[in-house]
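assembly run, all chains below
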Amino acid sequence: MSHKQQTILIATPTEFCFAENLAYLAREQNEVMYEVIDQSIIRAIKVNHQPILIQLDAPNQQEIHCTFITHQPSEIEQQEVIAYVTEWFDLERDLQPFYTLAQHDALLSIPYTKFYGLRNIGIPDFFEALVWGILGQQINLRFAYTLKRRFVEMYGECIVYEGKKYWLFPEPEILANVTVEELMLLKMTQKKSEYILDVAQKMVAGDLSKEKYLAMEDLQAVEKSLTAIRGIGPWTANYLAMRCLRIQTAFPVADVGLINAIKFLKEMDQKPTKEEILELAQNWENWQAYATFYLWRVLY
DNA sequence: TGCCAGGGTCTTT
DNA sequence: AAAGACCATGGC
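ok done. output:
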């Protein structure tokens, strides 16, 4: 690139700490969708159907600086990137009410202090969220990241920059032509391979889309519709609602991470039951998704 | 080293 | 409706 790289500013809300979000993104070495380098995040995204590379940092901690590494964006493309980053970091949400309840909550007061300014970092891409959700079922998170890496490196495209590869998540169209046997070579179970391919085919057919679910009445409707799909149970439906659809009442009650975080914070000898968790969650009305995200962060 | 992992489906009582 | 078997690989 001979031209000067262009940087735009993205406004951030009051309850925001760039370093805290960076720490979350840096917590997994094996993450394939972005790199955390020198207090910045570099990732590829698709803008106007074209892969570009962006770098996010916050030199003055006031707003996010977004640098276009490989591409001089048009005005419209800049707006698209701002919209993407805003959604990714959930920048439009006012966390004041959540923090008001979290401050005095038996479980949330510690993570509130520890992770102040952390946003529920989302998975804007619906197919990515679906695959990640299915992939992560019942296996340890480290292995899930390994499977995601294999999946993305096998079926995705990438931009190479300074010797590193920056990946875009594979499109469902690509997976629609893949066989169960091929997916199983990545060491996914046969069931998961089937689920992922089914979901890809449904998306290609137009039966399954983010827009469809964003337009739905409430969490209950989303949950009912999603769990009708083979491979998606209550946990995955709520995970998707929380990380992709941004439904704030989404709550994967039976989540092992949530259970273990509560057990740890309350110094319990045994895992809390579903009833105990629902009891605790009564104080999290309308903020179950953020409560879950902050509790996860306690352990990982 | 054996238990368990950011569950879900299918079968059996 | 509720409980149990099974998936199946790898982290720790």
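The mean pLDDT of chain A is 97.

DSSP finds 15 helices and seven strands in chain A.

not gonna interpret more than that til we talk
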